[in-house]
Design brief:
Helix content is 18%, strand content 44%. By secondary structure, it is of the alpha+beta class. It has one domain: Lipocalin, CATH 2.40.128. Keywords: Signal.
Length: 199
């Protein structure tokens, strides 16, 4: 082997080594944070750091929400079903989160709203953050009438089969042409807290 080939071979080895180190550093730079940490980052002006690749339910806090829950409010019956998604999502950061399905019936048993037969990504009811003891979920039904917002779920400390639900309706914008009855429009979820029982 000539001197020229030896030098060329050493240079190639150094280049390969540099690329290997870059890949290893990049892999090591990706880190996992908890749902609670994600919420703290969410409140900060900079948001979640770029080196975070996974927001994990490290303490299995979401497991207590999984299952079917039922409650009544103002003559209507609400049945919620929650499932847990693990390391899911289409973006750079993967998440552990809950997907919700909802069925609402009136006092005669007529179905007013039902997403039980829909695919998980079509329910428009999924979780984001764990804020202290409450889990926060986005809920969208009809944006033209502001029938959307945030749902807070909280399980009672001394009664793990009881859950408090509070819907905080969006108040930003609505389309008067597509929602002429806005003032009398009744949202899918009540705007008062109510209690569910695990089934």
């Amino acid at each position: 082997m000539t001197v020229h080939n030896l030098k060329k071979n050493k240079i190639m080895k150094k280049i390969i080594l540099v690329f290997a180190l870059m890949i290893i550093c990049n892999i090591n730079a990706q880190r996992t944070i908890s749902l609670a940490q994600a919420y703290e980052y969410f409140k900060s002006p900079n948001g979640i750091p770029e080196d975070v690749s996974y927001v994990k339910d490290t303490n299995n806090d979401l497991n207590k929400f999984i299952g079917t829950w039922k409650g009544n409010y103002d003559g209507k019956t609400y049945i919620f079903r929650f499932i847990k998604k693990i390391k899911s999502g289409e973006y750079d950061i993967k998440w552990d989160y809950l997907v919700g399905k909802l069925k609402v019936t009136d006092n005669k048993g007529n179905i007013l709203y039902n997403t039980f037969s829909l695919d998980d990504d079509k329910t428009y009811f999924s979780g984001t953050y764990l804020q202290h003891q409450s889990y926060i979920m986005d809920f969208i039904v009809n944006t033209y009438c502001n029938d959307s917002g945030v749902v807070f779920l909280r399980i009672y400390d001394n009664q793990p089969n009881k859950m408090k639900v509070l819907f905080d309706r969006d108040r930003t914008w609505y389309d008067p042409k597509k929602c002429p009855n806005y003032e009398t429009y009744e949202t899918t979820l009540p705007q008062k807290s109510f209690v569910l029982t695990k089934q």
